[in-house]
Amino acid sequence: MSKEITNTDKEAIRRIIIAQIEAFKADDGIQAFLYAAPSIRQQFKSVGNFMRMVRGSYQAVYRPRSVLFGELDEMQGMPAQTVYLMAQTGEVVKATYLMQQQPSKDWRIAGCFLMPLEEM
Predict the structure, then answer these.
(1) Is 87 helix (H, G, I), strand (E, B) or coil?
(2) What Cα–Cα distance (Å) separates residue 53 from each residue in 1, 30, 69, 91?
């Protein structure tokens, strides 16, 4: 990583991930979209496109039964927060959130990759 991640950064990263999950639970697509990095917002172009993608491909993120934070590592030169999510079906997945610090020093989600737990 280009800079040392402080405990304050780690807490901020967790808060952003939790806030986005809470926004999904509340069906607040606008707020959930705002937690995405500019590159993600640009890729999906609208809240509707973003929410369709999340509902269609990221059910464990959209409506988790439970959330457990793992390690903060590095992937592609970015902080990568591991989060274990239990889907409504009971399936547990490992989510890796790529985080990007903005010029304002706020953190945003620059990607999320899901992997079934049994494949780890």
Answers:
(1) coil
(2) 29, 14, 23, 19
Query: Which residue's structure tokens are 């999510």?
Result: 85
Is the distance from CB of 44 to CB of 56 less than 8 angstroms?
no
Whether 29 contacts 50, CB under 8 Å: yes
What is the overall mean pLDDT for the chain? 93
Q: What is the identity of the amino acid at 97?
A: Y
Measure the CA–CA gap between 66 and 38, rounded to whole angstroms: 28
Which tens digits make up the pLDDT trace of 20-79?
999 999 999 999 999 999 999 999 999 999 999 999 999 999 999 999 999 999 998 899
Between CA 41 and CA 91 the distance in angstroms is 28
Provide the β-strand partners of residue 83: 69, 95
